[in-house]
Amino acid sequence: MPNSGRNINIVLEEKIALLEKALIRERNAKKRLEVQLDEKAEIALYENKEFFDSYEKATSKQVQLQFLASLTQELLLDKNIDESFYHFAGNVAKLLDTCSAVVMRVNHDTHNSVWSLASGDKQWQIKPWLQGYEDIVNPFLTQSELCWHRIEYKSIGNNAIYSTLFRNDTLLYLVVKITETERRLILFDISHFCYGDDFKQTLGIAAQQFGAAIKRRMTKVELAYNYRDLRNTVNELRATQQQLIHSEKMSSLGQLAAGVAHEINNPIGYISSNLNVLKDYLKIYEHAFSQLPLTIVQQFNNTKELSFARNDVNELLNSCIIGVERVTDIVASLKTFSRKEQDDFSAVSINEVIESALKIVWNQLKYDHEIVQELALNLPKIQGNYGQLQQVFVNLFVNAAQAMNERGELLIESNFVDNSIEVNVHDTGCGMDESVIRRLFEPFYTTKNESEGTGLGLSVSYAIIEKHNALISVSSKPNQGCTFTLKFPILSL
Ligand code: ADP
User: Fold this and answer.
1) What is the DSSP letter of 337?
2) Is the CB–ligand 1 distance for residue 459 below 6 Å?
3) What does the domain layout of the chain look like in residue ranges?
4) Sign of the Cα pseudo-torsion (449, 450, 455, 458, in order)
């Protein structure tokens, strides 16, 4: 039995030894596993960090892309320049997470309005330009346009105005050229500018896009202005062409009338003098007749035809003389149309001419109508022919009097306007329609009956006005009176 007990001990010891060895092996294996686990954990941690970094980058890129996309969309809309600035500054302020932005419109020397954008609420207010803004603005305006710049508030100096507009001491700003003389300045009030390169690059792209959109808008505006100017020029050219055609027509009609006058002049001359000689002869006959014996005179008077002819011949001769005098007057008027005529020009006071013409027609006007004169004092004199100008005003006043049936008002104004003396002759008469206005200055055009008008007054006036390098125009509507405007340029005389 003692042998069997020893054997059991040996077996146990061997087993313990084996177990101890196994334990050591296990411990070593565990250590190795733990080392491996640590290594794996470290790798996983590193990979996670990379993942988070790129996630953050991707989110920021997405925000930037969204910003650029919405900016492009807004710039495509046809907004006006002010609105574009409003949106651009608002979007950038949102992207930068800044508290405020200020847009200033700066003209070379006349600085004007300021807009400011309060953080978040997007409420823009237009503030008047204050003295002191120049100090803030001037340092920026020398910068190249369309570049983001950052500036320390301290470098602008201690400006009280600055602190009313901004809270931080760092500014990010952008200068945009609008015209040769106008710049817009956007100032962003920021607390830091610690952004990555890609973020700054995005701001650069935004500035380029915005600048290009503003340039496009300005080109459009310029084109619209040019188009408007062109249209005005075309209209002016059309009006000048119409005037030329009209003047040409008037001048050919005038020349025709002057030619006719020239032809009539001689026959009228000898008809007139012959009629006067005839009148003298008649007086001789009458005298001889009165010397005849009474029986012969009685015999003559008893013959009805002879007695009638004797009485009528005087009347006929008188009316012929009156008629020829009228034709002589018309011929004299028609001679005014002749361009060859050399007129006597001297320094003439238009107000004096008006007053003398009024005296001539005074009797025709004073009892029936009211006459108002508003003549400017100290008007410069013009070079002109006193008599011819008087004739123009007499024609205008007589026409006005004839146009006013009931008690009307004749208003005569003279003024110095745009280097010209402007005279307005306004009446409250019957006025005229378009068809009359179109033919008004044509020789022999009249709407009056034969005893009242020859249709020469205005055509003669037109020719006289042309000789004075002046202009005559009319504005009238049926039953609404009529205004004739005369313009005598001072420089061209
Ligand atoms: P006349 O007076 O002999 O008819 P004018 O040449 O002076 O000739 O005028 C031409 C026509 O113009 C007139 O017949 C008349 O129809 C119109 N007219 C001129 N002045 C006026 C006026 N002040 N108001 C209305 N019609 C006018």
Assistant:
1) G
2) yes
3) 2-47, 78-194, 251-338, 346-489
4) negative
Task: For the chain, give the mean pLDDT.
Answer: 85
**Superfamily for the 346-489 domain:** Histidine kinase-like ATPase, C-terminal domain (3.30.565.10)
Of residues 35 and 340, more confidence is placed in 35
Q: In sequence order, which residues have a C-beta less than 8 Å from that of residue 441 and are 6 or more positions away?
A: 246, 250, 458, 459, 461, 462, 472
User: For 54, which DSSP code?
Assistant: H
Q: Compute, in angstroms, the gap from residue 328 CA to the centroid of ligand 1.
A: 21
In this predicted model, which residue has the larger pLDDT, 474 or 167? 474
Q: What is the pLDDT of residues 258-309, one digit of tens each?
A: 778 888 888 899 999 999 999 999 999 989 988 989 888 888 888 888 888 8
The Cα 446–Cα 432 span in angstroms is 12
Q: The domain 78-194 belongs to what CATH superfamily?
A: GAF domain (3.30.450.40)
Q: Tell me the C-alpha distance between 226 and 165, whole Å.
A: 39
**Spacing, Cα 294 to ligand 1 middle (Å):** 57
* The 3-state secondary structure of 379-435, one letter per residue: CCCEEECHHHHHHHHHHHHHHHHHHCCCCCEEEEEEEEECCEEEEEEEECCCCCCHH
Parallel, antiparallel, or unpaired: how do β-strands 124-127 and 149-152 relate?
unpaired
**pTM, rounded to two decimals:** 0.49
**Does residue 454's CB lie within 6 angstroms of at least one atom of ligand 1?**
yes
User: Ligand 1: does its nearest atom lie under 6 Å from the Cβ of 481?
Assistant: no
The two domains 78-194 and 346-489 share their CATH topology (first three levels equal): no
Q: 333: Cβ below 6 Å to ligand 1?
A: no
Atom of ligand 1 nearest to the CA of 395: 7
Distance 3 CA to ligand 1 centre (A): 168
Beta partners for residue 410, in sequence order: 371, 427
Among protein residues, the one with the nearest Cα to ligand 1's atom 2 is 453
